[in-house]
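Researcher: Sequence recovery benchmark, item below. Answer with residues only.
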């Protein structure tokens, strides 16, 4: 997995570096205007947001299945409704219905996966 993500980063570097250099030389996007603090925040956000999330998603696919890992990403919808409720922005009734539907769908996928992968369990028992 580290090799896959490493090559992905390498290809992104070589594909997007010419575009960044062109933007810098045409003065459309000045990269020397960034302070060290801003650059650190950009790099830190990239590492935590993009690299870590891609790594954890790939690890989830290896440990479960692609369906379960993709359905797990939809758990963000109910979590967003909970966070909005706690922060004072009350979601609408349809938001709560959608969150419940996502949770029921995720639980159904997990239940069916366990039934099909465990020979001792059956759907009707």
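Model:
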């Amino acid at each position: 997995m580290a090799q896959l993500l490493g090559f992905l980063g390498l290809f992104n570097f070589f594909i997007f570096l010419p575009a960044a250099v062109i933007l810098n030389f045409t003065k459309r996007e000045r990269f020397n205007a960034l302070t060290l603090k801003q650059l650190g925040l950009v790099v830190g956000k990239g590492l935590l947001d993009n690299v870590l999330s891609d790594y954890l998603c790939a690890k989830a696919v290896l440990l479960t299945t692609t369906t379960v890992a993709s359905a797990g990403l939809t758990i963000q919808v109910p979590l967003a409704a909970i966070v909005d409720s706690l922060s004072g922005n009350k979601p609408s009734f349809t938001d709560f219905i959608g969150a419940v539907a996502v949770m029921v769908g995720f639980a159904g996928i997990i239940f069916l996966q366990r039934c099909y992968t465990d020979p001792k369990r059956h759907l009707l028992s």
